[in-house]
Amino acid sequence: MKVFQSVFIMVFCCVNLLAQQNIRVSYAFLHKRDVTEKNFQTDMDMKLDFNGKESYFYSEGRFLRDSLSVLAFDMFGNTKDQVAYNEAARHRGTTDFWHVNYSVGEYEIGFNEVGHVFIGEGGKLELPQWTLVEMDSSKTFGGYEVKMAEADYLGRHWTAWYTEEIPVNAGPWLLWGCPGLIVYAIDSESIFNFYILNLEQYDVPRWPDGMKAYTRNSEVRKLSVKELEKVKTRARRDVEYRNELWGLGGSVAQVRRRDGSIDPGNKYLKFQPLISESYWK
Amino acid sequence: MGRVILISLIVLLLPICCHSRSYDGIAGKVLDAKTGEPVAGAFVSAYKDSKVVGYSISEADGAFQLNYRGAEAPDILMVTMMGYASCRIDVASATEPLEIKLIPQKTELPAAKVSASAIEEKGDTTVFSAAAFSDGQERDIGELLEKLPGISVNESGGIRVDGESIVKFYVEGMDLMGARYGTVVRNLTPDKISRVEVYRRHQPVKALSGMVLTDRSAVNIILKESSRSTWLFSGSASAGAPMFPLFDARAMVTRFAPTDQSLFLLKGNNVGKDIVQELREQEYFGRTSGKAYLLKESIDPDFDSPLSPTLSALDLPKEYWYANTSGIASMNALHKFNNGMMSRTFLNAAAEKYTEESFSSETISFQDGGALTIDEGVSMQDRKLYFNAGAELENNGDKKYFSDKLEFSGQIRENLLYVSREDPVSDNRNLPVFKIENLLNSTFLTSHHHAVEVMSDTHYFKLDGHRADFTVGTESFSQKYDLSRLDSRNSLRFNVKSRSLIFRIALNADFSYSGLESSLDGLPESYFSRHSKTGIMHFAPGVAVSTTRQIGRSRASVSLPASLNYLHFGGENVVFPLVSPLISLAGPVSGKLDYDVMMSYSMSRSSDESLLGAAVARSYRSLVIPDSLRMTRALIVNSNLKFSDNVAMFYATLSANYGKTSSDRTASSYYFDRYMVASFIPAQTVGRNVGVRGSVKKFFGSRTLVAEARGAAFTSSYEYLLQGRDAVFKDLDYSAGLTLRSNPCDWLSGEIKADALRHFTYSSATTRTDKVTCVFSLAVKPLKDVSLNTDCFWNWYSVEGVKVSNTPLISSELSWKQPKFSVFFRCMNIIDATEMRTEIVNAFQSFHISRNLLGRRILAGIRMSM
Fold first, then answer.
1. What is the DSSP string of B335-380?
2. Which chain A residues have a beta carbon less than 8 Å from that of B550?
3. Same domain, A53 and A31
4. Whole-number Å distance between alpha carbons of B489 and B539
5. Which of residues B406 and A250 earns the better pLDDT score?
6. Can you give the residue range of the structural domain that contains A39?
7. pLDDT at position B699
8. Under an 8 A CB cutoff, do A180 and B80 touch?
């Protein structure tokens, strides 16, 4: 009887383990500031945490930096742990994150500028109208057998390769809905490019508790997704606007050249948002 | 009234029924095919002509409603869910209500094989994808680890990261094997592992994390999902000729689960594999005292005595010369309790018979112009029986750490030597040893900034009845050597952390008692004492102060250990202090460039046993009178620069070192008719060395081409007394090497490694030695499942006009590989080279040694992994 109980418990546990869909996928995120640029900016440690109902796409380096910062600083912003501070400084990455709740069909987007966290809420999740191409092809990417799908989504034309070996409908950023994990995706202008680096299961979820580190000692501003995208795009392009967000609006620093003239500097930077600006029009 | 209500209901419900009939959607339920239970969270997508027209996610009761609003009715439904096989349904042939049954299927999470993802960095953790570096030819994970940048693996499975021994070896985050992890490294097959994680600056004690900083690394092996929490078997069996029975067999069963890990290994061979080495303790976490890890033939350095024989190792792969028959057995189990406590038990045993055949001609030149030539044919047989058993308890909590390891080990060793010459020599030795050891380690984090450590390493060992009987011609003499030693090293450490400063003070109390007896019988000469029996008590209280401070991105450390040593023996007392200060600075110059500089000064005395006061016959023609606590002082300066670019996969190292060693006694040898006596006389010796070495390594893809170039220049000088006169020796070495490894396609992989060395010795005469060594291996897959591997070793050298080019040593293996097993046919030493010549020439001695090799052998067998 005991043997039977043990076997039952083991089988039950195994079924539960299998039912847990907690996977963490590492992606490389390559992006250009403008379609005319030749070189990509790279974020080599983006993570997708997917638990079957929700997904978070974020930078591992940024997550570690935020987590270590909790150890490094006390509530007044003073350094309390020098080692953690030094460690935190080693980690870099984009502050952007994307959270999708598949159960209610919504998504939110966030980014951080010094001291301010902006969160765009209530985005209605659309299903990319994927067209499955080469359904019977046997191409591989990253060791996985992949199939191709194409869709117009959030203002861009995306081509994605997904693998049915990993039967989840998630993917990097807000890409989703293929009959398998998206392992590679690129937009038609070759501005954005995601590809899988690694895959693992995880036990302890980082989110939403990770958000506490992210928003600690920061002013949280909640907007609609559309408003947030506007703010983010402007902040990334307009230096003065970003300084204003940082609270540096009142001071102006100028660089004077040797000939006495003033260097106007780059007031405007190149930036392309993932959700095309044409989508909001 | 009832009729009115009925009609009203019909009227009310009619539109709803009509609406449900015109609903543009599909409803259904997703169920587990085995249990019939509903499956929640399944993703159901609908396609029309391969285009998505709608989707739904199943509810808690498995129900879903898929709405394709106005689009054309779908022809295909796809249902995906982790833990189940994907399901594809042809809508036309399905009947409503849809009941979709998903078949449970364990979802493999194979690591991606993208070249750019071969290496991933997360702070101090570097993650290597196993698949990215493997060319499929590796037999154990040790061979795979050697292909990763910055990692080297020695023959016994010991791992070094950036030149430093690792402090911990984990499989799935747990330390099953302790310091004997070589057993896993040399026996776990790489097809089971997903990735390798290297934790730099790893502090194994959680309570000391961030409090006590380390410079050493740890390695964690992450298994593939399918290999976790399940019993794994790997084994091989092969037999061959011409020696009968030529065999090589191995069976290993392992299980690596989150709370339980086990490893059972049985292994034996007589084809030249030195498998006993796998049971050696590697340099590891928890040791309070440094052990001599340089003695290659010892399983445990504590087992050595002055009578331990020296085996003459050759600088070529052991399968060509190591004539042994050996077997090992290892049983290890680890269990993690709910309260975080972990228990580890282990039982190891080994047996080995080793034989050695060689011929040597030695010429000793005297400064008066005379010379002595000794021609000898040596035949040696060495038998060992070793066992080791123990248990360890460990609790590695966030605030408390406790571990205690109790271990018993012993060895019975017999060594028979026969030397054929004018007056033949026989030398029979018996060397039994028993040892019991307890290692206690405890840490308490008393507050966020304070921690206390208690460490105690106590061991008792008895070299009981070590005896060597020598017969030279018709005369015989014998040497007995008994030692029983109780050694206890204890330390109480206080750690304080204040912002960027870490301060540690350690109070040490070391105690030992050695009972020593030596007796040399049968020699007529009486120029020296031959019998001694003494008890030596040694007490050494000490204090060690160290501090570490973060200066910008660099870390500066200063350490000052000091002890006062009291020795009591034979009614005499000796007192001497020892100090060994150390200062170091390390840190990143940039994100990719790291540096470290270390300077240390140390004082040490030779072991208490050196107070023996009588001559010990170490061989039939070599007697040593111990050095009576020789004092050695050493100044060492090391600096390293390391460049690592994991994106470009380019690595470079540059290191320089300076060392000065002085000693208050020096060995002086006197030659008698039949033997030589080395005694230590009170004369100062000074040795200096300066060296520079560097290497660059570039991966073009993780496997496509790996190129490494290395070079070194090293000079040393040594001033000492020889035959009562001052002598100065100076050595100068230049070396350069190149390794190219390539796996450009699935059917071809190869490696070529070439090293050249030019060595000068300056004394009363100058000698020059040039040496070139080449190792070449090639693996070809003419068919998908068939591979042909060929290894070749060749060396050439020249010494004082004598040029020696040894016959190339070639082995080849043909194997047919299936998913669970492979069948192989191996021919070792195809050319049948039978001897390896070595010439050694220095100022006063020259050796010509011809060593017998194992000839051509053929082996056929099977390897399995499941």
1. EE-TTSEEEEEEEEEEEEEEEEEEEEEEEEE-TTS-EEEEEEEEEE
2. 82-83, 86
3. yes
4. 10
5. B406
6. 2-215
7. 87
8. yes
pLDDT of residue A135: 60
Question: Out of B541-550, B691-700, B721-730, which region has the weakest mean confidence (pLDDT)?
Answer: B721-730
How many angstroms separate the CA atoms of B187 and B195, rounded? 17
B647 part of contact set with chain A, CB < 8 Å = yes
Peptide bond into B97 cis (omega under 30): yes
Contacts of A103 in chain B (CB under 8 A): 57
Helix (H) or strand (E) holding B726, with range, is: strand B725-745
* Contact (Cβ atoms closer than 8 angstroms) between residue A113 and residue A246: yes
Q: Which residues pair with B836 in a beta bridge?
A: B851
Tokens of B570: 């034979």
Asked whether residue A49 falls in the same domain as residue A9, the answer is: yes
Instruction: Please identify, among A191, A215, A239, the residue that sits at the C-terminal boundary of a domain.
Output: A215
Q: How far apart are CA B668 and CA B353, in angstroms?
A: 35
Question: CATH no. for residue A130?
Answer: 2.50.20.10
- Closest Cα in chain A, distance from residue B789 (Å): 25
β-partners of residue B712 are: B693, B735
Q: If residue B466 lies in a helix (H) or strand (E), which one and from where to where?
A: strand B450-472
Q: Is B669 exposed, middle or buried (0-12, 13-18, 19+ CB in 10 A)?
A: middle
For residue B446, the distance in angstroms to the closest alpha carbon of chain A comes to: 17
- Please check the confidence at residue B587 and state whether its pLDDT lies above 90: no
Beta bridge partners of B328: B267, B350
Confidence at residue B372, expressed as pLDDT on a 0 to 100 scale: 78
Query: Sheet of B98-102: strands edge to edge?
Result: B63-67, B25-32, B98-102
Q: Is the pLDDT of residue B822 over 60?
A: yes
pLDDT digits (tens, 9 = 90+) for B327-347: 999 999 999 887 778 999 999
Residue A59 and residue A154 share a domain: yes
* CA distances to B81, B275, B835 from B40, in Å: 9, 53, 72
Best mutation target, B47, B103, B114, to test chain A (most A CBs within 10 A): B114
Task: Give yes or no for a contact between B822 and B863, defined as CB atoms under 8 angstroms apart.
Answer: yes
Would you state the structure tokens that stand for residue B568, as one six-digit string?
């009591």
Distance CA B854, CA A68 (A): 58
Residue A241 burial (10 A CB sphere; 0-12, 13-18, 19+):
middle
Considering the domain architecture, whether residues A229 and A210 belong to the same structural domain is answered as no
Q: Which residues pair with A57 in a beta bridge?
A: A48, A98
pLDDT at A232 over 70: yes
For residues A142 and A174, membership in a common domain is answered with: yes
Mean pLDDT of chain B: 85
Tokens of B533: 């029996």
Q: Does B36 touch chain A (CB under 8 A)?
A: no
- Count how many domains chain A has: 2
Q: Based on the fold, state whether residues A269 and A158 are members of the same structural domain.
A: no
Q: What local confidence, expressed as pLDDT, does residue B126 receive?
A: 86
Distance from CA of B338 to the nearest CA of A (A): 17
Which residues 6+ apart lie within 8 Å of B426 measured at CB? B416, B417, B418, B419, B469, B470, B471
Rounded to whole angstroms, the Cα distance separating B69 from B25 reads 7
Confidence at residue A8, expressed as pLDDT on a 0 to 100 scale: 39
Token duo for residue B390: 């123990």
pTM here? 0.69
Instruction: Tell whether A171 and A251 lie within a shared domain.
Output: no
State whether A250 and A154 are in the same domain. Answer: no
Residues A107 and B233: their CA atoms lie apart, in Å, by 47
Q: Which of A64, A82, A103 has its CB closest to that of B499?
A: A82
Query: Does residue B103 register a pLDDT over 80?
Result: yes
**Last residue within a domain, chosen from A215, A238, A256:** A215
- ipTM greater than 0.85: no
In the 8-state DSSP scheme, what is residue A9?
A: H
Nearest to A83 among B104, B131, B210 (CB): B210
Give the model's pLDDT for residue B708: 94
Check residue A249 and give its pLDDT: 59
